[in-house]
Write a sequence for this structure.
């Protein structure tokens, strides 16, 4: 049911349409109870519009209604994706059936959503490689390539709250989907909304599929290949260091512990690993954390307390689906949580130091909202650096394009939201690969008598200090977000140009608007990065400061990321750590005060 088709219908008609196709008694009762309560507005909100399919697939609260994630919308998404895959398959005459790989995490309904997904594909004549049991998200994109699938689907909401779930789609190249594929899938979903006759007969469909060779359980096979590839990547990375490394590990109530144990076994570090038992078991309710995201304040408290009890100074974490990685170190008696940017450049320096390729043949990537320190490293050390739009859908696809061109091999990419990609394993963020590489770093540094923070200080001495001040404001509605960004742009007209002339006491020297399509440094004013008028993203450069403001794609937020830095390492003496940090804080305050104006706009400061 497209929005245009539902616009003229009464709530009663929408209710009847829902009840006519939903065979899940729990979600049927949700709608029936709302009808009994006379909750017309809530029914309209849930049924009038449908959950939007985008480059992240689907992600929403699990509840009844076309606007949310449930059995109905999972079936519809799977039928549409299957139809799109068949319409775009290049060799329809092949004797080998088209195939997809499907996996799931431990969240409420994840297993049942995965089975519904698999059955929908089988009913369309597409073979399903099923990762039977709990898996970490990177196993799906790895499996796409390993089994030469047309696509992959992972049922997970990553580090979202317990009430949420998601339907994450990977394309045949093992990367997250990008335009125009997302729009093509969305259109195919709209054209295939009616559940197939046997869509709800999941057990029988899958059992028949196994007998016919259309369903194959492959978790052990794919996991063995994945860890074999990871073993190749970490082999030799320790630089001769072979000592024991002590660290605390938390899976954040997710699926990371078992794959983490395999990584530790590969490296022979079982004796040094202390597990946070309170968070070790997969638990979809995430009972010990407010938000199951290692970036959130307080999320690592139990891990750090566990480390204190054991006299350990390093705490490591994965998020619940283990595609992100976090680390903290106790320095001079105080815990320091390494930022995503700090970890990003530590990994980059290690990849450069341990790669068999000369720097001129290496490419490393970061997204537009991440630190510019990687660019400074590239300028000094001679490797190729490329910046992409936000998200690993861009980092992964661009990395593949670079490697295909042949001049360099893209070995690594990162984003400030604790996401790290090691291209030899998967072209997506991978918290388990990151854990393995970080442990090789710890072992190597330990043999050299330094710690992570000590290594970071060495990098600052070489490339300059890069200090950040990141934050966000909450927007009550998409129109408010648009109004705020339009107001910022309007300041440029007031100043007689394409962008504001100043912010606070600083002069603006660079302006890139990836919504409107303008780059002040481009010869023709056209940005090299893709323009997307449906999203809001502006990057600004000033003397010693660069920042990006953007509307979040998955949350009602406007995020602002300021990076005060010495973009040329030669300026390091003019911008020590405290000077850089103070500048970042000042600019963050100026953004909120002069551009966001929460008292006027209705934005809520976090």
């Amino acid at each position: 049911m497209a929005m245009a088709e539902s616009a003229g219908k009464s709530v009663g008609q929408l209710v009847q349409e829902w009840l006519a196709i939903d065979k899940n008694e729990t979600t049927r009762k949700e709608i029936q109870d709302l009808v009994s309560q006379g909750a017309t507005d809530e029914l309209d909100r849930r049924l009038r519009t449908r959950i939007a399919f985008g480059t992240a697939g689907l992600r929403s609260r699990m509840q009844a209604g076309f606007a949310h994630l449930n059995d109905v919308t999972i079936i519809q998404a799977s039928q549409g994706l299957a139809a799109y895959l068949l319409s775009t398959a290049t060799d329809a005459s092949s004797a080998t059936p088209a195939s997809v790989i499907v996996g799931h995490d431990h969240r409420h309904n994840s297993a049942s959503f995965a089975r519904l997904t698999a059955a929908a594909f089988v009913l369309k004549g597409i073979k399903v490689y099923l990762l039977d049991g709990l898996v970490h998200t990177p196993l799906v994109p790895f499996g796409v390539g390993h089994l030469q699938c047309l696509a992959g689907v992972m049922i997970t909401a990553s580090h979202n709250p317990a009430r949420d779930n998601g339907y994450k789609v990977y394309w045949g190249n093992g990367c997250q989907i990008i335009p125009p594929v997302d729009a093509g899938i969305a259109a195919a979903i709209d054209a295939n909304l009616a559940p197939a006759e046997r869509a709800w007969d999941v057990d029988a469909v899958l059992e028949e599929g196994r007998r016919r060779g259309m369903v194959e359980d492959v978790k052990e096979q794919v996991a063995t290949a994945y860890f074999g590839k990871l073993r190749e990547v970490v082999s030799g990375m320790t630089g001769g260091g072979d000592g024991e490394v002590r660290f605390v590990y938390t899976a954040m109530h997710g699926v990371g512990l078992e794959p983490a144990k395999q990584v530790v076994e590969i490296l022979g570090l079982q004796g040094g690993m202390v597990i946070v038992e309170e968070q070790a078991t997969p638990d979809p309710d995430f009972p010990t954390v407010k938000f199951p995201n290692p970036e959130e304040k307080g999320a690592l408290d139990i891990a750090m307390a566990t480390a204190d009890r054991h006299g350990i100074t390093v705490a490591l974490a994965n998020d619940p689906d283990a595609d992100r990685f976090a680390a903290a170190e106790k320095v001079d008696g105080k815990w320091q949580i390494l930022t995503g940017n700090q970890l990003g450049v530590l990994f980059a320096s290690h990849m450069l130091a341990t790669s068999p390729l000369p720097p001129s043949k290496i490419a490393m990537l970061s997204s537009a909202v991440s630190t510019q320190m990687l660019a400074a490293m590239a300028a000094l050390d001679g490797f190729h650096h490329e910046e992409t739009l936000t998200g690993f859908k861009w980092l992964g696809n661009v990395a593949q394009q670079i490697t295909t061109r042949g001049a360099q091999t893209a070995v690594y990419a990162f984003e400030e939201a604790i996401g790290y990609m090691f291209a030899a394993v998967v072209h997506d963020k991978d918290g388990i690969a990151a854990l393995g590489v970080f442990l090789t770093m710890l072992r190597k540094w330990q043999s050299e008598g330094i710690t992570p923070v000590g290594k970071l200080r060495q990098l600052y001495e070489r490339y300059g200090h890069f200090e950040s001040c990141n934050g966000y404001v909450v927007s009550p509605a998409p129109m408010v977000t648009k109004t705020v960004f339009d107001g910022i742009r309007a300041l440029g007209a007031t100043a007689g140009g394409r962008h504001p002339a100043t912010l606070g006491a600083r002069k603006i020297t660079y302006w890139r608007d990836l919504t409107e399509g303008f780059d002040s440094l481009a010869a023709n004013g056209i940005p090299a990065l893709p323009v997307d008028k449906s999203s809001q993203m502006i990057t600004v450069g000033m003397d010693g400061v660069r920042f990006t403001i953007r509307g979040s794609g998955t949350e009602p937020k406007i995020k602002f990321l300021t990076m005060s830095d010495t973009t040329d390492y030669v300026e390091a003496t003019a911008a020590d750590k405290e000077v850089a940090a103070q500048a970042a804080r000042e600019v963050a305050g100026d953004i909120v005060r002069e551009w966001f104006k929460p008292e006027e706009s209705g934005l809520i400061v976090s």
In short: The first helix runs from residue 3 to 6. Residues 109 and 573 are 55 Å apart (CA to CA). The chain is about 40% helix and 20% strand.
